[in-house]
Hints:
The chain is α/β, with parallel strands linked by helices. The protein has eleven helices and 14 strands.
Amino acid sequence: MDKKLYYDDIALVPRFSKLVSRKDADVSTDIGSFKLKLPVIPANMRCVIDEQIAHDLSEGGYFYIMHRFDIDNYEFVETANKQNWKLISISVGVKESDIIALTNIIGSNLRVDFITIDIAHGHSTNMKSMIQYIKQQDHFKNTKIIAGNICTADGYIDLCNWGADIVKVGVGPGAACTTKLKTGFTYPMFSCILDIDDIRHRYNKTIPIIADGGISHNGDIAKAITAGADYVMCGKLFSECINSPAPVINGQKSYFGSASSHNKGHNRNIEGRIVTLENNGMTYQEKLNEIEQDLQSSISYAGVECVANLYRTRWVQI
């Protein structure tokens, strides 16, 4: 059996570039009808994003997914509609309370551009039922569904067939996730994306992939795109920022998993932990600018001109 690879297990190989300046490299992309400055998404976690950051990202031309923990989705969507945000993007689970929030949004005729169905095991009957529920609502006919997380080719195909518009990929790779330790289940991210991208092309599927988890350095973003990801979700990189909502304890940021007891508020089925991080000394915007510049450099080293063409850059196993 072939060895399955993490981002740290591979290196990208440079080739001749026609770019005169790295600044000429195009890092923009599209998601649905929205033009984005970067194919990078802050993780929909309570220690990564809050309402203010979501607003700033929306208005600044970046993508976001608001988390679903201890917030009222209806109130969030109502506020975003009243303020006419450029992008309104929320997360839901698969509980009755999530159905009630969506029903209230429909009743008030509020715009939602993206709904992320955010559950730990996305290849499940609960996911299928929630996708079908949203798809059956005429109000959401223009709303894109992001579904996840999954980590197998079968999971990707099923979510596509159930009606997902975008599939979020990654089980257990996050720095604050203990799923792999507590349950034994995970899949090394570089190979995970490669395998799902292969099946995507074999079955002529066009549903995009978000690679979620395992990003430790800016260069891992280029590696994920090389493997086949269309967008890359980062948690730790943004949680470290000065103005992230991650709490500061003894001068360090506290980064905690969505399935941690800290986030859940109880000790049942815990699959996350708190990780202390050094403050990176940057604001969100400064970090986004740094990622943009590093991704432009990656494009230059790859010998291409735009981020989409990073796909299947030559790589070697270390």
